[in-house]
Design a protein that fits this description.
Strand order of the largest sheet: 6-7-8-3-9-10
CATH topology: Rossmann fold
Number of strands: 12
Radius of gyration: 20 Å
Helix content: 25-40%
CATH class: Alpha Beta
CATH architecture: 3-Layer(aba) Sandwich
Number of domains: 1
Bound molecules: adenosine-5'-triphosphate, magnesium ion
CATH superfamily: P-loop containing nucleotide triphosphate hydrolases
Strand content: 25-35%
Order of helices and strands: EEEHEEHEHHHHEHEHEEHHEE
Length: 273
């Protein structure tokens, strides 16, 4: 599990994360939701040690982030950031190959090549393998970054908005693949998602953030409710059900009586803790 204790983070004088205590269980698909600027990426970057820890403590499966060597950490956790800057004169298969670096340190073995092939295949990239990253579409590039993260073969995957640029079919395929990693091979996934219905359909556990704090946490049933979501996003949100899971509706132009939105909804922040 990932244990976060007393985590706070500032940029200049601005508090970005405040007093976060959070336990992320192993073997679950965990969705991190919340409005823009809530602190989701900052939290993920701190857990991934892409930012120096200012205050608090983070442990991943018993490894203290403050003292664990990078090589050890890279075998425990793979990360895909929200912004993926990478040299564009790199071929897709080379990018995916970087995911194996922690395993071979420059001397790939057959198992590494097999993992690269499997990742290319899994993300439908086999026919793009020799293309440069600046010669493929945004969604294909996103899939190449995901394939690199998968190829790393770690117990933990931390993904910041992996659905960016993906069409409906590729989004669904990715969520199904994440669910399969969790249920089939006992991996643990933490993923930021904006489209809460992907969390509703696939997540085991949801963590909701707002203003640098965790404001709700639990099973989809507990977090994806009208009062919690309406308060979280400061917007009236309706929750229905589909396939025995919550289905979040926020595209309505009219309420049930036919009155146009915005209908008068009490956005009661007391639903957030
Ligand atoms: N380099 C920076 N300098 C100043 N403020 C920053 C910097 N990076 C992030 N912030 C601020 O920190 C807060 C949290 O940002 P963060 O990127 O963690 O949010 P987020 O929840 O991931 O949002 P989004 O959904 O838009 O990706 C925001 O208010 C943002 O403006
Ligand atoms: Mg972000």
């Amino acid at each position: 599990m990932i244990r976060i204790d007393g985590l706070s983070h500032h940029i200049g004088a601005a508090p970005i994360l405040q007093d976060i205590d959070l336990t992320l269980p192993r073997g679950k698909l965990i969705a991190l939701i919340g409005p823009n600027g809530a602190g989701k990426s900052t939290l993920l970057r701190l857990v991934a040690r892409l930012e120096p820890l200012q205050q608090g403590r983070i442990e991943i499966d018993g490894l203290d982030l403050a003292t664990t060597p990078t090589e050890r950490l890279a075998l425990a956790m793979a990360v895909m950031g929200q912004q993926t800057h990478i040299a564009s004169r790199l071929r897709v298969a080379e990018l995916v190959g970087f995911g194996r670096w922690p395993h071979h340190h420059g001397r790939p073995r057959p198992a590494d090549r097999a993992a690269i092939e499997a990742a290319l295949e899994a993300f439908g990239l086999a026919s793009f393998r020799d293309r440069f990253l600046d010669e493929i579409s945004g969604g294909q590039a996103q899939r190449a970054h995901l394939a690199m993260t998968f190829a790393q073969g770690t117990d933990w995957l931390l993904l910041d908005e992996p659905l960016n640029n993906l069409d409906m079919a590729h989004s669904r395929a990715l969520m199904a693949r994440l669910a399969e990693l969790v249920r089939g091979s006992g991996r643990s996934v933490v993923t930021v998602v904006h489209e809460v219905n992907y969390a509703a359909a696939w997540a085991d556990h949801i963590v909701a953030m707002k203003n640098g704090r965790i404001v709700a946490e639990g099973a989809p049933e507990a977090v994806l409710t009208e009062p919690v979501l309406s308060a979280l996003y400061d917007t009236p949100i309706e929750v229905s059900r589909h396939d025995d899971r919550p289905l979040v509706l926020h595209h309505h132009w009219h309420d049930q009586l036919g009155a146009p939105f915005p209908k008068q909804v009490e956005l009661d922040q007391s639903f957030l803790h």
